[in-house]
Design goal:
Length: 392
């Protein structure tokens, strides 16, 4: 079995051994393997769940005709969700540091709102240390945070490898729990051993599936234009690698334009306008962010073409705007990102660690209840958009 369906089975399989108490993690060739002396081995029902998850991805490609209930939360996700549901009154008021790569764009603002909601529920105080996407700035603010002394750290690395260095050199020696969000680090595909938890929704795996979904939609021969984020960033590298994989897998799809657009709709507008002038037969445009996709749509209209008819637009974010565009038929789909839930459940995982119950594992946000209990897939299409409730 090949393709992204197999990858999704592997992702769920890595957490198929359910711990009876604390879960520890070690590395294997897939990344994280949760282990404990007392575990329940994967049974026939566990194997059935693995294939159910694969079926959910197939549903995303086939118009979401398979019910969302076919997929379940991973054990790590379920542990955090159950802890959150059961939590009532904080036993202690903690101080945590929010070591973030950004606070001033729609994605990062939504994540901040999730952290505020968690702080209200769990009764903790937090202080923001903003890197503004600069690894050098992040090095300075992390040093400041460690000097101030906090009881826990919610860490959004500005870049994977520098973030790994900061974790090993500054954060890990504090002995305080650290939860990482947004991107993986230290060369690990998802979870880095020693962390209390890792939560992501924009890893290589997610972009691979997003691009596979877009390219698989092509009937006959297609020309594709792509716009991504910032050159040199980890997310842009994931995006570019996913494009290369999809292009190799689908020889009937030719990528004629592939440009950075810095998550800016104005830049995306100009890039796609130029692309359509140079390549008037472009019939698929892929964009890694809904804001950029607004610019893409404007460019398509300006070229005298009809979005959703002459040109299919595949996006990422599942923002309120993006979901409405999908409902209207102007965009083919938008892949869900969950910044609000990323911070909220990231903070919940940090509270678990402070409570002596760390999960020490990876949480794929696509297996959180916001996806599992609504569409059952991260791909929001016209067929399932009514089930999905965006929060930003």
């Amino acid at each position: 079995m090949r393709g992204p369906g197999f990858t999704l089975v592997q992702r769920h399989q890595q957490s198929c051994r359910l711990p009876l108490s604390r879960v520890n993690a070690t590395n294997d060739r897939r990344g994280t393997r949760m282990s404990h002396p007392f575990t329940i081995a994967a049974s026939s029902s566990g194997i059935a769940r693995m294939f159910a998850v694969a079926l959910v991805f197939v549903a995303g490609l086939a118009g979401n005709n398979i019910k969302a209930s076919a997929v379940e939360m991973s054990p790590a996700a379920k542990a955090v969700v159950d802890y959150d549901k059961a939590f009532t009154t904080p036993a202690k008021k903690y101080r945590i540091a929010y070591l973030t790569e950004c606070v001033d764009n729609p994605y990062c603002l939504a994540r901040l709102e999730g952290l505020k909601a968690a702080a209200k529920k769990y009764g903790f105080d937090f202080k923001i240390f903003d890197a503004n996407f600069s690894p050098a700035t992040q090095a300075k603010v992390v040093e400041n945070a460690v000097t101030e002394g906090f009881e826990g750290y919610l860490f959004g690395p500005a870049a994977a490898q520098p973030g790994c260095g900061l974790y090993n050199r500054l954060l890990k020696p504090t002995g305080k729990p650290v939860v990482s969000i947004d991107i993986a680090m230290c060369g690990d595909p998802d979870y880095t051993p020693g962390l209390a938890a890792t939560l992501t929704m924009q890893g290589p795996y997610h972009f691979d599936n997003m691009l596979d979904n877009a390219f698989a939609s092509c009937k006959g021969n297609c020309e594709v234009a792509a716009v991504g984020g910032f050159v040199g960033s980890d997310l842009f590298t994931y995006w570019e690698n996913a494009i290369k994989k999809a292009a190799a897998k689908y020889p009937n799809v030719k990528v004629v334009v592939d440009e950075p657009a810095n998550f800016d709709p104005r830049i995306a507008l100009k890039k796609i306008q130029d692309a359509l002038l140079a390549h008037p037969h472009i019939n698929i445009v892929i964009s890694s962010w809904d804001d950029m996709s607004r610019g893409v749509e404007q460019a398509v209209v300006a070229a005298g073409k009809v979005p959703g008819k002459d040109v299919s637009i595949f996006s990422g974010g599942a923002t309120k705007v993006g979901v409405e565009k999908v409902k209207s038929g102007k965009w083919a789909s938008t892949m869900a990102y969950l910044p609000y839930q990323e911070a909220y459940y990231g903070a919940a995982a940090l509270m678990m660690a402070l409570d002596g119950k760390p999960i020490n594992a990876y949480i794929d946000e696509e297996l959180l209840p916001e996806i599992v209990n609504s569409t059952g897939t991260g791909f929001i299409s016209k067929a399932n958009a009514d089930k999905y409730k965006p929060v930003y």
